[in-house]
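Subject: sequence -> structure tokens, single chain

Hey, anyone have a minute? Need the predicted structure for the following. Not urgent.
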Amino acid sequence: MRPVRPADRDRIVEMTKDVWGGHDYLPEVFDDWVADAASAFEALEIDGVVVGVQRLRPYAHGLVWYEGLRVASSHRRRGLARAMLISAIAEAKEQGHREMRLATGNVDAVPLFESVGFEKLVDVRWWRGSRVEGGESARIPGAAEAEKLWPGIARSPGIELYHGVVADFNGARDLGSAELAGLAESGMLRVGPGGRAVAGLRRPWGDNIAVGFIAGSGGALRDLLMALRFEADADGLDDVVVTLPRDHPAADDLRATGYDFANDDDHAYIYALTL
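Reply:
Had a minute. Here:
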């Protein structure tokens, strides 16, 4: 194992051509990952050739995000992915992290993660609502107000299905009052009427408003879901994408406000390992 170098770009592009039907995101993030000194972007090299990569990214106090695990097709089914993952876990422990988290949409990788002790936190479904003209965008609260919303959110129907984390594939942070305040400070929290519904935004992957969690029910939540569609239109975006745990009761509210499944046939999960 060694750090990935800028000169590895062509090899990694070649190595990932067969991942996700040729649509792997690694070539797009390669330069940023190499330049990020706070994270560990690592390559597995055998006989002078890179045959695997992975990344460990500290993203909150005590938490490290594991991502980008890839093994070249010529070297799969040799135990290399498992060896790389175990190496990453050992490295995270040495650095003093308390928990490693990851997200995956690859069902074939699930047995590997579970075999080393990862536990499934969230079984994710994505819902999409197209932009709509004519209404007002949702309100962005201040940090102090946002923090006070947590007791109500903690009692919201279905909040337990998030298992204490934001369903964000860029890094699942702890869901609580501090997270609400942080989202509000960065302009990434939206509230419905009377603060009875909230939506925590995440960094989008496309031209959309991306939602990492929602809380609330009934009319307040439906008003908020519609306000997000109005906001998408006001910002010139295509749609709103909501990440929701499987069997969450808000599915009825999403259907009622014009949202549909974006990944009806796909599987996506967030996992965690206590270190």
